[in-house]
Amino acid sequence: AVLRAVENRKWIARCAQTGISCFIDPLGNVYSELPYDSKGVITKTIIPNNEQTFFSKNGDVIGRTGFYVGTASLVLCLINYAKKKKLKR
After folding, report:
1. pLDDT tens string 6-65
2. Per-residue CA distances from 65 to 40, 49, 58, 59 (Å)
3. Is 51 exposed, middle or buried (0-12, 13-18, 19+ CB in 10 A)?
4. Which of 42, 47, 54 has its CA nearest to residue 26?
5. DSSP symbols for 64-87
6. Are 47 and 10 in contact (CB under 8 A)?
7. How far is it, in rounded angstroms, from Cα 23 to Cα 5?
8. Which of 28, 42, 59, 85 has its C-alpha lying 20 to 30 A from 75's C-alpha?
9. pTM of this prediction?
10. Distance separating alpha carbons of residues 52 and 8, to the nearest angstrom
């Protein structure tokens, strides 16, 4: 939940029946944490944010780019290997 709050720059109100309930700000700081397996109510005023981050708009660009570069490198290596093998004959 902390990672999602940071990458989207949004407040998160995390609520769990058997887990840790808390509020997380856009910087990843945790507030009003209610420990595991305890009963209670927590409240906090949060600030809405309509700003979209680069990650929210474009997704995992670095991951996709890495995949395509890796695939292209593999294809080029296979072509180079085939050319060298053909020259040895």
Report:
1. 888 899 998 887 778 899 999 999 998 888 878 888 888 888 888 888 888 888 898 999
2. 46, 29, 12, 11
3. exposed
4. 47
5. HHHHHHHHHHHHHHHHHHHHHHHH
6. no
7. 10
8. 59
9. 0.62
10. 7
